């Protein structure tokens, strides 16, 4: 049994806490819960799985709560997850090897975000630093908190970083590695009202943090993302524009995401021609299929159909991606739509057939 403590913070999470704990049981890890003021059955349900339950007085700071939970753990090795994140798989043999070989590095777990898009269930995957030795890391940031090194000088190990999903976040890339842990995040399954409330809460906390820290591209990115969730694209554009106007590193995960979200926001604002300006940063960001797919959409919205097909076809050849389908069925579907609109029905059918069971493609196949 590995000496790992799984740290969770919660408030009124009776909808998720038991399912979260159930997925941890097979691994025998210690479960530490810091409750920030639940008035529902969260604590009662969690008590079925752990006696390491503590109360934390909520102070509007997610990092403070998560650091408190880490302090209460019996083990130095910490896996930090949220109540709405369910373990899907852990290769404990490989994880033990990582702990031995890379004790000061941060393990980036694979999170699969489930969400609904145009009536279809979709997934987005991202690697996030969540598995660390607490002697070397702690959380910072009042919301959208991140693990950061206590001291770079203490990080002596430089692990292999050739995994295509690994790129730097707040931790220098040479100090991170892909941890063999996969998690399903179901937090986007909530009602429209729940999602709106969460976004509005995050905006309030982010604006407060911005007042204390000053201009920060990461905070601007998160504000932009929060406004996108509210479908307030003008405000989203404003914050993405502020963030990208700063000196940002294109190698950072959140910068890649910010550029892509900026492009989608321009399309949502019907500013398709302005979105073509992303060609100026193509070489920096066309390293994963998501950006190439976005460029296909931008060309498509500008009536540059040959160029759009070229980008979608290129996307299907790429291995690295965040959103499911951008390098497969979604790209082929858009190729099919272009061919169908142009009257090339045989080519359209061929593209739609490559989409497998993707329902929009099946619908088109039945109608042409």
Short characterization:
The protein is of the alpha/beta class. The chain has helices at residues 17-22, 42-46, 62-72, 92-101, 192-213, 217-229, 233-244, 253-268, 272-275, 282-285, 289-301, 305-315, 329-341, 345-353, 359-367; strands at residues 4-10, 30-35, 53-55, 77-80, 85-90, 106-117, 120-133, 137-140, 146-149, 176-185.
Q: What value does the Rg take, in angstroms?
A: 22 Å
Following the backbone from N to C, one meets helices and strands in this order, namely: EHEHEHEEHEEEEEHHHHHHHHHHH
Domain module tally = 2
Q: What topology, given as strand order, has the largest sheet?
A: 3-2-1-4-7-6-10-5
Give the CA-CA distance, first to last residue.
57 Å
The appropriate CATH architecture of the largest domain is: Alpha-Beta Complex
Please bin the fraction of helical residues.
40-55%
Mean pLDDT equals 93
Q: Can you summarize the main beta sheet? A: 8 strands, mixed
Measured by DSSP, the beta-strand proportion falls in: 15-25%
**Global shape:** globular
- Poorly predicted runs are 159-168
- CATH topology of the largest domain: the name is Spore Coat Polysaccharide Biosynthesis Protein SpsA, Chain A
What is the CATH top level name of the largest domain? Alpha Beta
- Overall strand count: 10
Alpha-beta content class: alpha/beta
């Amino acid at each position: 049994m590995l000496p790992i403590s799984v740290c969770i913070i919660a408030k009124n999470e009776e909808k998720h806490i038991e399912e979260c704990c159930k997925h941890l049981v097979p691994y025998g890890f210690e479960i530490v819960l810091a409750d920030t003021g639940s008035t529902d059955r969260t604590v009662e349900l969690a008590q079925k799985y752990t006696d390491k339950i503590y109360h934390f007085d909520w102070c509007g700071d997610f990092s403070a709560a998560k650091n408190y939970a880490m302090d209460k753990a019996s083990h130095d090795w910490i896996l930090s997850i949220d109540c709405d994140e369910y373990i899907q798989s852990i290769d404990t043999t490989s994880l033990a090897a990582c702990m031995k070989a890379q004790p000061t590095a941060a393990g980036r777990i694979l999170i699969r975000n489930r969400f609904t898009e145009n009536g279809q269930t979709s997934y987005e995957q991202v690697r996030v630093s969540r598995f660390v030795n607490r002697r070397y890391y702690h959380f910072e940031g009042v919301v959208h908190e991140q693990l950061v090194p206590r001291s770079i000088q203490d990080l002596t190990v430089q692990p292999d970083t050739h995994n295509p999903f690994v790129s730097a976040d707040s931790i220098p890339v040479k100090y991170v590695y892909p941890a063999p842990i996969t998690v399903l995040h179901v937090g986007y399954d909530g009602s429209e009202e729940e999602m709106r409330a969460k976004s509005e809460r995050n905006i309030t906390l982010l604006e407060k943090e911005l007042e204390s820290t000053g201009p920060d591209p990461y905070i601007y990115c998160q504000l932009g993302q929060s406004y996108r969730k509210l479908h307030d694209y003008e405000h989203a554009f404003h914050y993405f524009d502020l963030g990208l106007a700063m000196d940002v590193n294109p190698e950072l995960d959140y910068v890649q995401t910010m550029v892509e979200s900026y492009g989608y926001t321009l399309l949502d604002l019907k500013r398709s021609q302005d979105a073509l300006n992303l060609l100026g940063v193509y070489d920096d960001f066309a390293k994963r299929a998501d950006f190439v797919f976005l460029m296909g959409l931008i060309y498509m919205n500008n009536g540059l159909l040959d160029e759009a097909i070229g980008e979608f076809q290129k996307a299907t050849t790429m291995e690295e991606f965040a959103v499911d389908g951008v390098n497969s069925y979604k790209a082929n579907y858009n190729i099919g739509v272009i061919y169908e609109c142009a009257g090339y029905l045989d080519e359209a059918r061929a593209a739609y057939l490559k989409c497998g069971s993707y329902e929009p493609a099946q619908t088109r196949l039945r109608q042409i």
